[in-house]
Amino acid sequence: MNALPQDGRDQRGPAHDHDDAIAAAARSGLGPWFEHHLHSLVASLGRLLRKPWAALLTIGVMAVALALPLGLWAALSNIERFAGDVQRSRQISLFLKPDIAVERARALAAALRARPEVGTVELRTPEQGLAELREKSGLGDSLSAIEGNPLPSLLLVTPKGDELALAQSLGELAEADLVQHDAGWRQRLDGWLRFGGRLAWMLAIGLGLGALLVVGNTVRLDIQSRREEIGVLQLLGATDGFIRRPFLYLGACYGLAAGAVALALLTVADRSLREPLGALAASYGSRFVLEGFGPLQALAILAGSAALGWFGAGLVTGHHLRQARAGRG
C-alpha cells in the first residue's frame, strides 16, 4: 500500500494527474458528450455512403448553387486586376511643354508631392518615353530615323481625393501643355464593378437559399425514415440536442462535400481558361494571369458551405421536433 507524505498531498507525478483529469472529465459528462458527437459524425458519413447516388445528386445540386456566385466573384476580381485596378485608372497624365528641362520637371514633381491632395507623382523623362515607345510600338527603326527627341516630360499624378479638381488645377500650371484624364471611363468601370458585385450578392443569397432547401429536404427525408426511432428516443427522455445532433452533422457533411466539389469545378475552369486568356492578354502587351482562390479563401469557402448545411439541417430538425412535441401535447 502506497504511503502518503505527512502533509497529505499525493506526489505520484504529472502522468497520474493527467489520468485523474481525464477520469474527472468522464465523470462530469464530457466523455459521453464527446463520444456522442464522434458517433454522430461517423453515423452521418455512414448514411451518406449507404445511399451514394442520392448523396451525389444532393451534393451536385448544392455545388452548382455555390459555384455560380463564387465564380462570378472570382471573375469580377480578375476583371478589376486586368483593368489595372481602380487606383491606377485615377492617374492624371500631365504633359509638360517641350521647352521645359528635365531639372525643372523634377522640381515641379517635388512641389506637387508636397500638396495634400496629391498621392504620388512619377516623372517620365523624354528619354524614358522614347525608349518605351520603341519597345511597345514596334517602330524602333522608324523612330531611330527621327532627329532629336520630340517627346516632352510627363508627370503621372495619382490624386488622394477629387481627381477632377486636381486635374483642373494642374491644367492651370504655367509648365502644363496637356492634361489627360479620363474620369468618365473610371466612373463607368466603377459602376460596372459595383453592379457585378451586387449581382454576385443577389446570386449568393438566392442560390444559398436554394442550397438550404436542398439540404433541408434531404434531411427531412432522413428524419421521416427514422420517425419511429426518434419517437422512442423522446419517450426515453432524450433531449432535443441529442436527437438533433446526428442530423446536424449530416447537413454539415453535405455542405462540406458540396463546397469541395464547387472548388474543384472552379479550379478546372481556372485551369482551362488560364492559357488562352494569358495568350490574349499577351497580344495586348499585358502579363495578366488568371488567379483563382487562395488557400485561406478555399478554407473559408469550405467552412461557410459546411455551416450552410448545418444551418439548413438545424432548421428542418427543429421544425420536426416542435411538431412532435405539439402532437404529444
From TrEMBL:
InterPro entries: ABC3_permease_C (IPR003838), FtsX (IPR004513), FtsX_ECD (IPR040690), FtsX_proteobact-type (IPR047590). Its main location: membrane. It is a multi-pass membrane protein. Residues 202-311 form the ABC3 transporter permease C-terminal domain. Belongs to the ABC-4 integral membrane protein family. FtsX subfamily. Forms a membrane-associated complex with FtsE. This is Cell division protein FtsX. It comes from Lysobacter firmicutimachus.
